[in-house]
Structure formats: C-alpha cells, structure tokens
Amino acid sequence: MIHPTAIVSSHAELGANVSVGPYSTIGDEVIVHDEVEIAGHVVIEGPSEIGRGTRLFPFASVGQAPQDLKFAGERTRLLIGERNVIREYVTMHRGTAGGGGVTTIGHDNLFMAQAHIAHDCHIGSHNIFANGATLAGHVAVGEQAMIGAYSGVHQFCRVGNYAFIGGFSVVVKDALPYARSVGNHARCYGANTLGLRRQGFSAETIRRIQHAFYLLLAAKLNTTQALERIKAEMAGAPEIDYLVQFIEQSPRGVVK
Question: Distance of CA 121 to CAs 111, 130, 134, 159, Å?
C-alpha cells in the first residue's frame, strides 16, 4: 500500500500491511515493521527502526541527523517502539557517538503536533508529549509521564515516572516522579494526586506519596534530612523506594 508518489529506498525494509501516503520519503537503512501507517509528506531517514502499529501523521520528520555541531556524519540510530502516535510536524533525531549513538522511544507514547525529541534521548512507554513539548539532547523520560505544551527540558535532565510537567515550563533539573512541576524555571508543587488516582493508585499509596512530598518540600528539612525521614518511615514501599533512588542518583539535582 505505497502511494505512487512516495519515494522508498531500495535499501529500506517494509513489513506486512504497511501503508505509505503520497509524497512521503523513506531513506536508506530504514526498517518499518508490520502495520505501520505513514501518512503523506512524512520523511524517515536511517538508520532508523519504526515499531509495529506506529502511526506517523503528515509532515513528521524522524531519523534525521542530530542538531549537534560535534556530529561528523558517524553512523547512529533512532529506535522507535510499537504503537506510538507521532502527530504533525514532530521531529525525532538520531543519536551521536558521544551520547551512546542511539535515540530510543518505547511503546504506546503520544507525541502531539510539533513535539521535538533531540539526539540521545531515551523515552519509556505510555508517555504523553503535548503540542510543542521539547526535549534537548540526552534527556531520559520514564513511564506514564505527561509533558505539557511548549515546555522545554534541559539537556541531561531526567523526568521520572508519573511526572506531570505543566505547559510552558522550563525544566533545568530532574523532574520528580509522581509530582507536579510547573513554571520558568520549574518548581515542584507536590504530588500529582489527580493523575495518580486516574492511573489507579490506591488511596494508601497516594497518602504515602503525599507524605513523602510533605517531608521533601514543606517540613523545613534539607534534602538529606528529608530522605532519612522518608526511608525511616516508609522504606519498602516500591513507589517510595523509587522516589528515594531517583533523588539520590540525580547528577543535576531535582526540581523542588
């Protein structure tokens, strides 16, 4: 199901039930798995791999060379998982040799129009990137995060699981999991309780997370003291252990 105006390289590999719309271009060393839908005017360059069931809307551009002045044409990759929705004008770039050589996207993510994923980013699964959400290079995003419209995440930052970043925010440190981070520069406003309820967290789990954020943000403790209290009071709960580990392993510090 390839439109006659599409240009598909003879060195590309297309799986079963792939559709390619008018005027789309698929370059060398592109692997498109089964049941991928590529609309008109999409550009895919390689080396890149598009997972099963992914949908690319008009004017999306994925697999282009990174916007990094150190890039010298070395062979790097973009790997996109299954069932992602990549809307209009989304851009995703390959990795760089200095950043590991690969940009990775997990499964079941929604990238709304004009979102940008820069080189060497690593995105988990079930995340939502609103219109114009932008990741600089080397950003890591966990699972079930929501990154608001026209927000920007600084290079080498991390976004934790179930994090919510409000629209038009500028994130220059690691965005805490389970939390609402909003503003320029972003500040943390505690647990994202509404989002956690929607994701099926129990009332007891949400209560523990809320108490952890009270200790971190409002109890007049420094971060080390707050973490000691959290571990003393709630160690062993998986969500709390993950929150503590995320903070302790942060190379840039976290949004507070």
Answer: 14, 17, 11, 11
